[in-house]
Amino acid sequence: MRALVHLDFVERRARSPLLSGVLLALGLVAAGAVLLACRIDVQRRDGMELRLAALTSAVHSSPEQEARAAREAAASSKTEQELATPWTGLLAELEAASKDADGQVSVLAVEPDHAKHKVHINGESQNLALAIAFVQRLQMSRALKFPMFDSHELRADDPQHPIRFELTADWQDSL
Amino acid sequence: MSRLWPDELGAYVAPARLCLVRLRRRYRRALVREQELPVMTGGQGDWVGTLAALEAKLSEADWSGALLRVVVADHWVRYSALPYSPELNSAEECEAHARALLASTYGDAIIDWQLSLSEAPPGATRIVCAMPAALLSGLRDLCVRSGTRLASVQPQLIAAYNSWRHRIPADGAWFVTVERGTLAAARVGLNGFERVHTVRIGNDWTREIKRLQIFGRLVSASAPNGRVFVDAPLAWRPAALPAGPELEWLEDSAPPLTTLHRLEHLRRLAA
């Protein structure tokens, strides 16, 4: 449609400087508000991108970091396994068995094998009969199952000629 | 009547008649009333009688308290096309140039008339209209006396064109508006008005119609966009029969409900 022709002897198109100024000011304020909102959005987006980058780098770490994490995980797992070993009950049984032998059997080392759920015990006694009695005593304990001699030897270099023995037993978790 | 949205009153003032419409604008526009009055005047150049009739109407309760929009018959105004000139920088220079142009066409009689120029983009021709300052001051004075707010005063050609502009093709045409005693024709191009002519016509409608038909045949034969759109009183239509292709009569069964559209509708119907 053709444009309206404005020709009027009374009505004039609004050309008030005040109105124009007010409209200009409103326009500038609106433009400023839009720019400010835009800037805030850009800053927020930048912040989110930084956080995303940090998260991404945490997920996709370098080989050194991965190796270190693996080591830490292994150490953590080992610690966890150590903590899972029922040391309190095991040592109490060994101490009780040694006491029952009137202190003539000494436990020299206790080494757990977590993978096989076994414990290796090194000990020393004045004679073989005491060592056998010690193993029989351990066979009655609730903490250990199937204690058996692995080896024994007579210490000829020692003036009292003690018996050094090694035995292996399974341990039970339900202590 | 709402003080926030007062009713609008449209008044068409012509040498021998006065047309009035009143519209309510509150929620949706509604025609309140319309009326045409014959006016006895001392002559074609005498608007005192018409203005007196308008003032008398404005003192009546049915027509008072409204915002007034006036359309002045082409008989009392003069037009000229003002081609674009890049040397004219200020509004004062444009008005001085327009006044000189009108004076070269109509003489010194219009030297103290009031001018109004149409708005147009740079490069486009503008229309300048001159109206007797006494007529304009008479309208202002009667509004002051009757307590009516004068919102607009437009010449008939502009008001009629604005009412029919949706029918004028974009590539150009002639637009003609006819009233008792006067015919105004405007050549409308791509950028708006290009030329304006006003002629005095007699009371023999059939003769004027035939002249208009000849004009239509001439312009339609000489230019591809020479269609002629005629805004004329409905009473003229029988005189134009059988209708030829040279003239396109503008008619509307249901005009848009604005004050000036309704006023133009009444002017065509009541003539």
What does this structure look like?
The complex is a heterodimer of chains A (175) and B (271). Chain A is α+β, with helices and mostly antiparallel strands and 175 residues long. Chain A folds into two domains: 31-81; 85-171, 2-Layer Sandwich (Gyrase A, domain 2), CATH 3.30.1360.100. Helices cover 52% and strands 21% of the residues of chain A. Chain A has helices at residues 17-59, 63-84, 87-100, 128-139, and strands at 105-113, 118-125, 144-154, 163-171. Chain A is rod-shaped. The mean pLDDT of chain A is 85. Chain B has three domains: 8-75 and 132-156, ATPase, nucleotide binding domain (Nucleotidyltransferase, domain 5, 2-Layer Sandwich), CATH 3.30.420; 76-131; 161-251, 2-Layer Sandwich (Nucleotidyltransferase, domain 5). Chain B contains seven helices and 13 strands. Chain B has helices at 48-58, 91-106, 133-146, 156-164, 205-222, 237-240, 259-270; strands spanning 8-13, 17-24, 30-38, 67-72, 78-82, 114-117, 126-131, 149-155, 173-179, 182-189, 192-200, 228-231, 248-249. In chain B, strand 12, helix 6 and strand 13 form a beta-alpha-beta unit. In chain B, helix 1 runs parallel beside helix 3. The longest helix of chain B has 18 residues, at 205-222. Chain B is globular. Chains A and B meet through loops of A and strand 6, strand 7, strand 8 and helix 4 of B.
Structural class of chain A: alpha+beta
DSSP, total strands of chain A:
4
**Major beta sheet, strand line-up of chain A:** 1-2-4-3
Task: Tell me the major beta sheet of chain B.
Answer: 5 strands, mixed
- Indicate the multimeric state: heterodimer
Low-confidence stretches of chain A: none
The class by helix and strand makeup of chain B works out as alpha/beta
The end-to-end distance of chain A, rounded to whole angstroms, is 97 Å
The CATH topology of the largest domain in chain B is: Nucleotidyltransferase, domain 5
Task: Provide the CATH architecture of the largest domain in chain A.
Answer: 2-Layer Sandwich
**What is the first-to-last residue Cα distance of chain B?**
30 Å
